[in-house]
Design brief:
- One of its GO terms (molecular function) is phosphorelay response regulator activity.
- Keywords: DNA-binding, Phosphoprotein, Transcription, Transcription regulation, Two-component regulatory system.
- It is found in: Cytoplasm.
- Pfam families: Response_reg (PF00072), Trans_reg_C (PF00486).
- InterPro entries: CheY-like_superfamily, OmpR/PhoB-type_DNA-bd, Sig_transdc_resp-reg_receiver, WalR-like, WH-like_DNA-bd_sf.
- This protein is of the alpha/beta class.
- It has 2 domains: 122 residues, 3-Layer(aba) Sandwich (Rossmann fold), CATH 3.40.50; 95 residues, Arc Repressor Mutant, subunit A (Orthogonal Bundle), CATH 1.10.10.
- The chain has 8 helices and 11 strands.
- It has a 5-stranded parallel sheet, with helices on both faces.
- α6 crosses α7.
- The longest helix has 20 residues.
């Protein structure tokens, strides 16, 4: 049986050691690096199931590392950082992270988040994807769930895994209105908590990447007080 391997990228040795200790207790194998460039190199050359990235690291910061990883890999990424402002969290999620944990942190909470992300990734892989294999073609959008690709009028659009899942959920149920709570629980597979603006941030980024401002219609429509729907 292949052991699940987690990459820990943090230039604070004590934090990396603490993470390794708790993750090893869960049965995970850990690889520790101290900068973003080395994290990218490891992911390109080794089989890694999940990455925990600090943001402020030498040579290459966590944001740039995540962007580079997302070019070729769809493994879960969790940011672990002392940068705790809402803007920092939004930037992390938009960059491609699946979760964002601030320092100081509860090691057991982080382990729980790791477990949740790995469960979701495993469900996707064993089921052949979070969706069926039917290609969706709306005349504007073409979504291939098997290859996880999206194009608008034949122009490819690069999306993060969460952005893809949100878009697929909406497009596969045209005209149905989904609340932020429903979207969050369907995509993140976690309980929704009041005050979370995670879905709103991802919807905003999706609209920019789909270049709605250049289209004649809003592909993702906001139904005020209710939620979001695909309107293409």
């Amino acid at each position: 049986m292949t052991m699940t391997t987690i990459l820990i990228a943090d230039d604070e040795e004590a934090i990396a050691d603490l993470l390794e200790l708790h993750l090893q207790k869960e049965g995970y194998q850990c690889i520790k690096v101290t900068d973003g460039a080395e994290a990218v190199r490891i992911i390109l050359t080794r089989s890694i199931d999940l990455a925990i990235l600090d943001i402020m690291m030498p040579r290459m910061d966590g944001y740039e590392a995540a962007r580079t990883i997302r070019e070729t890999h769809h493994i879960p990424i969790i940011f672990l950082s002392a940068k705790s402002s809402d803007l920092d969290k939004i930037t992390g999620l938009v960059t491609g992270a699946d979760d964002y944990v601030t320092k100081p942190f509860n090691p057991m909470e982080l382990v729980a988040r790791v477990n949740a992300q790995l469960r979701r990734a495993n469900q996707f892989n064993t089921a052949g994807g979070a969706h069926n294999t039917s290609i969706l073609n709306t005349g504007v959008l073409v979504i291939n769930p098997e290859q996880r690709t999206v194009s608008v009028y034949d122009q490819p659009v690069e999306l993060t895994p969460k952005e893809f899942d949100i878009l697929y959920l909406l497009v596969s149920h045209p005209k149905k209105v989904f609340s932020s709570e429903h979207i969050f629980e369907s995509v993140w597979k976690e309980s929704y908590y009041e005050g979370s603006n995670t879905v709103m941030v991802h919807i905003r980024t999706l609209r920019k990447k789909l270049e709605e401002d250049k289209l004649k219609t809003k592909l993702i429509k906001t139904v005020w007080g209710v939620g979001y729907t695909y309107n293409g």
